[in-house]
Amino acid sequence: MLKLKYPFWSVVAGPSPERILCAVSASTRQVLYMDSESSETAGVGMGSNRAAGLQNMGAEEGTGDWKPGLPDGQKGEEEEDWFLANSGLVRSMPLVVGGVGGCLVVLNRVLSGVAPVADASSGQSRADVLSLALSATLLLTGLMWKSVQPKPPVTVRLQGVECLRMNPVLPARAYEELSWAWQLVQKSMRCGGMVVIYGGQCMMQAGTARQSESGSGEAQVVDVPALVNKPICGGVLQSGKANYFGNLPLFPGRVEFDFLPSNTQAVVVHPLGEEGLLILASDTVRGFRPIDQAWIATISEKIDSTLQDVQELQISAPKPSQ
Hints:
Layout (H helix, E strand, L loop, with lengths): L1 E4 L3 E5 L6 E6 L5 E4 L15 H8 L19 H4 L1 H4 L1 H25 L11 H25 L13 E6 L5 H17 L2 E8 L2 E9 L14 H5 L2 H9 L3 E3 L20 E7 L3 E7 L7 H27 L6
Antiparallel strand pairs: 1-2, 2-3, 3-4, 5-7, 6-7, 6-10, 8-9, 9-10
């Protein structure tokens, strides 16, 4: 059993380093990736016993399933939003309050012995009229809230061809880490495609890609020089800030991503330092949650560190004598 430490990840490996069982964020101690056999080793280095280790990693004992988590003592935005979790109850409350309030006002009017005809000179009549108006407003609000329901996220089957392209300049270590990063985002998110661009080259293209127009049946090649000069990707490189398109079909800028499937629903473009981009495609509208975007930022830092080392090695490598 090996326990390896990288700048951003802590790794538990099996009998050999190639057999990765789980990956844990070094800063948050939360699981990034868990293999089907990792339930036997999840407690290694993460707690006094196996169950505590599994709980810290957000995984269920005896399964290969996992749930990305946040540091201890913190809750995700979706977990804290009580109104989002109970939207049906919240939308029904105006109807219930308005209906009960209106009935109580009428019942009070009947039982009080006041004449049923409204008299403007009577204070109780004016109060009853105002109360009925407020009850009617609540009823109308409740009906409007019930009629306007948010649509569930649309999930499609990405149309394209499966591919896994690696730049031949990558050494074995970088090849393994990029492959591993692809497995992480594929297992942990609604991600169907991944492209890594660094130093003006396409280092990796994985997942579902658009079919080439040449009719060869292969994936469309990423035109890196043209892509980095376009508004979206060029803007991310210049600003150093990620850009997220939760509903890509509504954005005219989708034409920049001509290498992704035509029915891609969401895209994240994240910078890799100052020289690269990480592009992830999803088959679901708003497929990347806030917690997913946090993990993407961590994975981007790791990829940037790896590719920066590769670039430095290429620069320092002696040139062959002519």
